[in-house]
Design a protein that fits this description.
Elements (H helix, E strand, L loop, with lengths): L4 H16 L6 H8 L3 H14 L2 E4 L5 E4 L8 H8 L22 H17 L4 H4 L3 H7 L4
Antiparallel strand pairs: 1-2
Helix pairs in contact: 1-3, 2-3, 4-5
C-alpha cells in the first residue's frame, strides 16, 4: 500500500496539532517545522478543515487546532477518507479494464491485504501516534 504525500502531510499536521494541545498553530509554523511547502500545507489544512478534523480560525489570534481529542481520531478511518478515490490497482476502480479480472486471484489477495491494512490502522488513534511526546517535541524543536 502506498500513501499519497497528501495523506502523509495530513498525518504530520495532525500529529503536530496533537502535540500542541489546545494551543493554535499556523500553516507557516508547521511548514517550517517539517520543511514542507506552505502551499502544499494550505491545501492539506483546507481539506482537514472541510472533513471536520481540525478547526480553523481567521484573524488576529487565528490558526488551527484539532476539532476533537487525539484519542477520538482513528487512523485507519482517516486514511481511508483521505485516500478515497485512489485505488490500489486499476481493477479496483470503476473503469478497471483488465482482461483477466474475472479469473484473477491476485485481485482477491490484494483486496484482503487492503482490508487487513485498514483494519490494523483502525486499532490506532492519533493519541497512539504521539505517545512518545517528548521525543517528537524534541525532534520538532517545540518548547
Amino acid at each position: 500500500m502506498h500513501l499519497s504525500s497528501f495523506t502523509d502531510y495530513s498525518l504530520r499536521v495532525l500529529m503536530y496539532l496533537a502535540l500542541k494541545g489546545e494551543e493554535r498553530s499556523t500553516v507557516s509554523e508547521i511548514a517550517d517545522k517539517y520543511h514542507i511547502s506552505k502551499n502544499h500545507l494550505v491545501k492539506v489544512v483546507h481539506n482537514l478543515s472541510t472533513m471536520g478534523t481540525i478547526d480553523s480560525y481567521k484573524g488576529k489570534g487565528g490558526g488551527i487546532n484539532l476539532s476533537k481529542p487525539p484519542n477520538e481520531i482513528v487512523i485507519g478511518k482517516l486514511i481511508s477518507e483521505l485516500e478515497s478515490g485512489s485505488y490500489l490497482v486499476e481493477c479496483f476502480g470503476p473503469s478497471g479494464n483488465c482482461t483477466i479480472s474475472p479469473a484473477c486471484k491476485l485481485k482477491q489477495a490484494l483486496k484482503l491485504a487492503e482490508k487487513n491494512f485498514y483494519e490494523t490502522l483502525n486499532e490506532y488513534t492519533l493519541a497512539d501516534l504521539i505517545s512518545n511526546k517528548s521525543k517528537l517535541s524534541s525532534a520538532l524543536a517545540l518548547s
